[in-house]
Design a protein that fits this description.
single chain; mainly beta; 3-stranded antiparallel sheet
């Protein structure tokens, strides 16, 4: 975003849009040209994740940003238990490619859909991972491909899945 932002914003389910308070959003640095930005996080233990839900920037503070700008429209999700210290991709497994398609509807309908988040279910054969990495592929606005936004992420775990 406009400066360093705590990644804890992605987990707190508070999307009030103000990065200086308990809510907000996270954005990668604007490079001015297309780049496949990534964000990596440590789950703290090897975890059997079954679902991922992402939330767009703008769902509560600025509806003009929903379904546009640098909000993710396509990304890849990777997992690793022993990521390379140099960030090399050879230690990462592709879990899935996720696509968010803007549906038809009124502005109010689109906002409600965005507020529910975009849900992606894991295949049963995906193993436990400690580290997850999101790799940007596309955003809703071509100019926005120089960065990406996330207002939040929810992960669901089921050890028996």
């Amino acid at each position: 975003g406009s400066g360093p932002q705590p990644h804890s914003f992605m987990w707190n389910q508070n999307y009030n849009g103000n990065p200086s308070t308990a809510g907000g959003w996270v954005g990668t640095t604007n490079t001015g040209s297309y780049s496949e930005h990534t964000i990596t996080f440590d789950l703290g233990k090897e975890t059997k994740v079954t679902r991922l839900v992402t939330y767009q920037r703008g769902i509560y503070d600025n509806t003009s940003l929903v379904w546009t700008n640098a909000n993710l429209s396509e990304f890849e999700l990777y997992g690793s238990n022993y990521p390379s210290a140099d960030g090399a991709w050879s230690s990462w497994d592709l879990i899935m490619t996720c696509t968010i398609t803007k549906p038809a509807g009124s502005a109010a309908d689109l906002l409600e859909i965005a507020k529910r988040g975009h849900e992606f279910s894991f295949d049963r054969n995906v193993p436990k991972y400690r580290y997850l990495r999101i790799k940007q592929k596309r955003t809703f606005t071509t100019a926005g491909n120089s960065r990406f936004f996330l207002a939040g992420i929810r992960l669901f775990e089921n050890q028996n899945f």
